[in-house]
Amino acid sequence: MPGYNLVDEPWLTVRSAGGRPPLELGIAEVLARAHELEGVVVEFSTQLPAVLRQVLLPVVAHATGAPRTLHDKGQRLSRDGGFTKDELREIRTYLDEHRAQFDLFDPKNPFGQVAGLRTAKDETKGSAALVATAASGNNVPLFASRTDADPLDLTPAQAAHWLVHAHCWDTAAIKTGVVGDDQVKAGKTTGNPTGPLGQLGVIVPTGRTLYETLLLNLPVTPPTVLGVPQWLRGPHGPAWKPRAAEGLLDLWTWQARRIRLVPHEDGSGQLRVARVVISAGDRLTPMPEREPHTAWTFTAPAKKSATARPERRPRRHTQGKAAWRGLDALLSATRQGPEGAFETSVLLDEISGLREIGSLDADYPLQVETFGMVYGTQSAVVEDVLHDSIPLSLLALHQDSEAHELLLDVAEQAEQLARAVNNLSADLRRAAGAEPVPWDKGQRPGEFLLHLLDPLVRRLLAGVRGAGDDEEQLHQGRLAWEEVAHRHAREAADALLLAAPAATFGGRTLEQPGKAGEAAKAGKAGRTRSYSLGAAGANFRRQLDEILPRWTDALRQAAAAREAEIGPGPDHDPDLGADFDH
Fold it and tell me: Percentage helix, strand, coil, to 5, in the chain?
């Protein structure tokens, strides 16, 4: 059976600069031309961090060394020509020396696999077991166009992508028991965790070129804690064990599964992979505190004592929530929020430091991509895949900057506007004799407003990034945001008010929750509140003025100027100002 070596075979699709057609290249040429390429193109979004961590970043770090200091990282990042001639020679020498370890179908040590991995009955599964988007056993995506019984022939390039993806993101389903694994019971292993990235909210900073992206994702790491990648740890046997990561490269190339691809030649003589063996792999315990591709949350310790410290856990992304809605955890080295304390990723913290030492300009076009996996039914199936990308200002990474305050304010204002619209909906439902929509059921109107605000926030993020430290431009951007957000919130509220039934005009009076029993015990009448169309609208307008104070002030100043010029109208309401006239 012929081999398929990832060093030279064109298994990676990359974007060329200037809008030219994508290219298909091997590892060696991708790294040699990294400064000319915009980035790696993948079939499925979560394959990108898998390719970076399992292949490209470890090759660069082990061949040329990771940055030892922030200044070292800054110097390497500021080069226009990408890797130096010496670094390219080191990379080429490294790939030549370890070429055999990158052969996908090597009979003795296939890349990312265990040679000879087999079950007691020499059973194999369809390659769909490797593919997160394919129907396989209980993992059946909604509207899947194929069943588990349909053959799925993968090209070697596709198989390589899904191989590294499985090591990073595989489900926690029961795995096949293989010969040589002493922990197999009844032909299977249980208690498997998901792949390591499935336990994180993955954050990948990207730059203008693939070279910059690689450097942005190489954390400052002393040689003593760099470790070695999996292809130099020796052939893996079928037995697995729980263990700690032995250095950064071990963490990145973690073998979360024992896998063997079963290649065959199709009718035209082309290599294909239709069958695989997948069993349990090493269990990462605990999650290293220096994991660079995630933010962190500090929570109260499970067992309280005088010496107990807050628990530091990877912060996962929330399903259905845009990346900008989690800016509080991205923008600060440490920040206290309503859900606890946050800490940004090591990589974003270093990027902030690179701006401080002058290695990156304030208007550097940083992009931040986020990835996550949502699992269901004991993490045995994939329910959803999360991927987002936002532009981010380097200045916003500093807590004392105007950009930092602006972005946090905007994200919080958007959330408050959504809550205000939801409160309006709840008040109108109470006025009509119904109960509010529960927070965890149904579609609430605030979510629709956030959908409308999403492109505005993204445009603002790009504008703040381009503005650098121009405070006047930032002020104008903030005011423009509040103006448009004000209009969208009013439109969402108007839709609810216009759809309100006639019963809401008169409304009704209700006892406040939790007060009636207390009042009865005290022999007093309980506190009540009246709900009506007018009261609901007035309450919403008051919240709107509080949430968007700058635009509210601008409206009132404009109304005052107009009044001074032409005098008040016959129906002038000084409390509303120009709010309804805008």
Answer: 40, 15, 40
Strands (E), 377-459: 381-391
Question: Do 392 and 431 sit in the same domain of this protein?
Answer: no
Three-state SS at 522: coil
- Of 336, 370, 399, the residue at which a domain comes to its end is 399
- Cα separation, 398 vs 411, in Å, equals 16
Q: Is residue 574 part of a domain?
A: no
The structural domain count of the chain equals: 2
Report the relative pairing of strands 37-41 and 12-16 from DSSP bridges.
antiparallel
Do 521 and 532 fall within a single domain? yes
Residue 208 lies in a domain: yes
Is the pLDDT score of 444 beyond 70?
yes
Q: Using one digit for the tens of pLDDT, what is the confidence trace for 515-551?
A: 545 544 555 556 888 899 999 999 999 999 999 999 9
Tell me whether residue 200 is in a domain. yes
One domain for residues 375 and 495:
no
Give how far the C-alpha of residue 44 lies from the chain's centroid of Cα atoms, to the nearest Å. 14
Give the chain's radius of gyration (CA, Å): 28
Residue 388 sits in the same domain as residue 412: no
The DSSP output letter for 447 is H
Domain match, 419 and 491 both: yes
The reported pLDDT for the residue numbered 574 is 45
Q: What is the pLDDT of residues 334-362, one digit of tens each?
A: 666 555 688 999 999 999 999 999 999 99
Cβ contact 66:77 at 8 Å: no
Q: 488-515, pLDDT tens digit by residue?
A: 999 999 999 999 999 898 888 888 766 5
Judged on CB neighbours under 10 Å (0-12, 13-18, 19+), 574 is: exposed
Same domain? For 375 and 492 the reply is no
- Is pLDDT above 80 for 441? no
What's the domain range around 264? 1-182+191-399
- As a whole-number percent, the residues of the chain with pLDDT over 70 amount to 91
> What average pLDDT score do residues 118-131 get?
94
Residue 43 is predicted with a pLDDT of 95
Same domain, 15 and 87: yes
Quote the CA–CA distance of 492 and 504 in Å, as a whole number.
18
Sequence-distant (6+) residues with CB within 8 A of 95 are 7, 27, 28, 59, 63, 102
